[in-house]
Design goal:
By secondary structure, the protein is α+β, with helices and mostly antiparallel strands. The chain is built from five helices and eleven strands, in the order E-E-E-H-E-E-H-E-H-E-E-H-E-E-H-E. The longest helix has 20 residues. It starts with a strand and ends with a strand. The mean pLDDT is about 90.
């Protein structure tokens, strides 16, 4: 599993024209499959009058979730080339929607594949990409007596504290670079004399 991955720098739209058809590629980062689907739904609503709203997304640092849709274009001519372009560029946690406004000239299967894949490639070039470190979300559970000092140690040590919840015990949610999880577990055991609970779960 890589410690780093590439994704889009931010959400944006880039337009290209092929034989009078307009292709608008909307790109956005998506941490989860639900985020990707919500973005697709928003674009479809915005461009409800378009001929097609084809989409593709890649979720997971290891690209574990990959989906695509041709949205009425001939099978394999839109969503798949879009997905292939995202994978060729090593993009992760990203969703792309290409909206087509038909211009009256049929492009043929080869033309459609080039147009949809090309729209994604051009949008990535224009909007930019960035490399991000892969983080794991983790919870630390500790008694009230130790919580204040531990939270302070985490913050002064440069750890990313996402949330602190007070109940019978104190739960501190943090994001850790994936490579640091084992070392952090050892540090935590030393810092709390083995009294703290620790659980690492999904990607941050």
């Amino acid at each position: 599993m890589p410690d780093e991955y590439r994704t889009v720098a931010g959400a944006g739209v880039h337009e290209t024209e092929v034989n009078r058809s307009r292709f608008l590629c909307a790109l956005a980062p998506a941490a989860t499959e639900q985020e990707a689907q919500d973005f697709i739904a928003a674009v479809r609503k915005q461009h409800a009058d378009a001929s097609h709203n084809c989409w593709a997304y890649v979720i997971g640092a290891d690209a574990s979730v990959q989906k695509a849709s041709d949205d009425g274009e001939p099978g394999g001519t839109a969503g798949v080339p879009m997905l292939q372009m995202l994978l060729r560029r090593d993009m992760r946690y990203v969703v792309a929607v290409v909206t087509r406004y038909f211009g009256g000239v049929k492009l043929g299967a080869g033309g459609l594949i080039r147009a949809y894949g090309g729209a994604v490639g051009e949008a990535l070039d224009t909007l930019g990409t960035r490399t991000r470190r892969r983080y794991r979300l983790a919870t630390v559970t500790v008694d009230h007596q130790r919580a204040g000092k531990l939270e302070n140690d985490l913050r002064t040590g440069g750890r990313e504290v996402r949330d602190v919840r007070y109940g019978d015990a104190v739960t501190i949610e943090i994001a850790l670079p994936d490579a640091d999880v084992d070392a952090f577990r050892s540090w935590l055991a030393d810092a709390t004399a083995g009294t703290a609970g620790f659980e690492a779960y999904g990607d941050a």
